[in-house]
Design brief:
alpha/beta, 5-stranded mixed sheet, Glutaredoxin, 34% helix, 7 strands, 21% strand
Amino acid sequence: MTRLLQHARVAVAAIALTAAPALAQDLGIAVGEKAPGGPLETLTGQTVDLGSFLGKQPTVVEFWATWCGNCKQLEPSVRAAHTKYGTTVRFVTVAVSVNQSVERVKAWQAANKLPGELLYDRKGTVSGAYDVPATSYVVVVDKTGKIVYTGVGGTQNLDAAIKKAM
């Protein structure tokens, strides 16, 4: 039941945000907290812990969906940030399982090639741990594993957010 409620909350918030793009703001998990790990899947079905990507270098984590309008709007900023910081900052995209399957995510990735790691949150465990309010939710984590930025929407200033983690 908890998983269903988490997915429903993400879906409702994503629909609301798609109608009117939001600016970056502090939502979800608190800035200053240690970023949690949790089980995700690679697109080939292997289990990986998000924690294995954290605490080694600055990391940008985006909670994303193939159907998310704000995610599509944010995509050029993500690509630009990856081009600028890709050698020193890790980029991890977490595909939520709301209204999409791993097969749909694979097909989208094959056609669009998001930079960095693209992982699937089949059970919503990681989305729940981050209290994700909507898709296009970005969390920036510094090299010590501390969250330095959270924001949602298609017009976030990723450059400024990443600089907080450097």
